[in-house]
Amino acid sequence: MSAPHRTALRFVPIVAAVALLASGCATPVGGAATPAPTETSASPEATPTATPTPLETRAPAAEIALPASCDELFTGDLRAMLEADIAPLNDPGVTMYSTENAEALTLLDSGVPNLRCTWGRPSDRGIATTVALVSDEQAQQIADALTTAGFGSEPGDDGEYFRTSQKMLSMDDEVVELGETHFLRGNAWIATRWINYGPESYTPGIVAALWQ
């Protein structure tokens, strides 16, 4: 499967005391630039630890097969909410990556079996999710990379959640919120990046559909 791409968005960071912050950026797909974060916060209950618990020591979880289509990920109330709030599913113009973490992105690009799904249109509001099948070693690599990057982590749904979020100022002086949620369980890794739309029920809804 072809590597995911990024959404054509352009932001400038919130002005801080040091003017040089305005020059920092990461590049999203489509040639636009995403600013360096000026404010990052993990979920309150998700505090990163210096030494994450090795995933292989946790209770074994059922493995899954890669879904045949995105329709298998979004069902019931979650599907209805997304169609009402941020349709359509898989607009070809949305090319945002499912993660901005370099190590995690490298692993996604390495050829692991994966399914990519997006919600929204090319704009400053949308979601990109990739479900990938990974080995125990790869899952531990992801967990270590996210923890090192400052993601908050917490157990849940027989797996592990990793979260981070940021706020910045757009070129139109509007506050933009963006972040990532990752979930590891068994042989599955769910990677999601969102911009201005990240409902808490999103990833748990996908988890429920995959391990129903």
TrEMBL record:
Organism domain of life: Bacteria
Keyword presence, Signal: yes
Region (Disordered): 31-55
Keywords: Signal
Protein name: Uncharacterized protein
Signal sequence extent: 1-31
